[in-house]
Design goal:
Blueprint lengths: L7 E7 L3 H6 L6 H13 L3 E8 L6 H14 L3 E6 L1 E3 L4 H6 L8 E3 L7 E3 L8 H9 L5 E3 L15 H8 L6 H7 L3
Parallel strand pairs: 1-2, 2-3, 3-7
Antiparallel strand pairs: 4-6, 5-6
Helix pairs in contact: 2-3, 3-5
Length: about 180
Amino acid sequence: MHQAGCVGINFGVDSGDAEMLRRLGRAHAPGDILNAARCSRNADIAVMLDLLLGAPGETRASLTRTVELMRQAEPDCVGVSLGVRVYPGTELAAQVASPELHAGLLGGQSPSEPLFFLDPAVAPFAAHLLDSLIGDDPRFFFFDPSRPARDYNYNANQRLVAALQSGLRGAYWDILRRYQP
C-alpha cells in the first residue's frame, strides 16, 4: 500500500476489548489491532483507529481495556464515538429491541432521524470515564463541547474548515492531526 502511495489508514476497530469484539461479531482480536498498527507504522503509513463504544454489554472494564489497548497500539489518532448507530434489519437492531435494552435507544423519532444505542449500564458515567482515561492525549478525538479541538466530526468543524483554507488536504482525521493553527 505504501508503494502505491497510501499515506494513512483508518481502521474501524470498534473496540479494544476481546469480549466486546466477540459480542460485535468482529473477526479480529486485540492482538490483530496491535499488529495492524505496528505494520502500518513500520511501512511509514499513518494510523487512525476508530472506536464505537457503548454497544450492548459494554462495561467500565471494557471501556478501560479499550483505551489502554489504543495507547499500547500507539496510533497517530484514535476516534472515539460514544453510542452506536442502529441500522434497521441488523443484528444490533434485533438485540436492542429487547425490553431490557430498549432504554438505551436514543433518537430515531422520525425516519429522517438516526437511531443510536448507548448501553444503559454505562450511560451514566461513560463520557466522564472516557474523558478521564484519555486525559490530554492529543491523539484521541473525543467530542466534548468544552474542548472543540478534540472533536473530529467533519460536519461544521471550524478547525477542519480553517485547515482546508490553509491548504491542507487528505483524510479529515489526518488533516486535524497535522493542523496547528
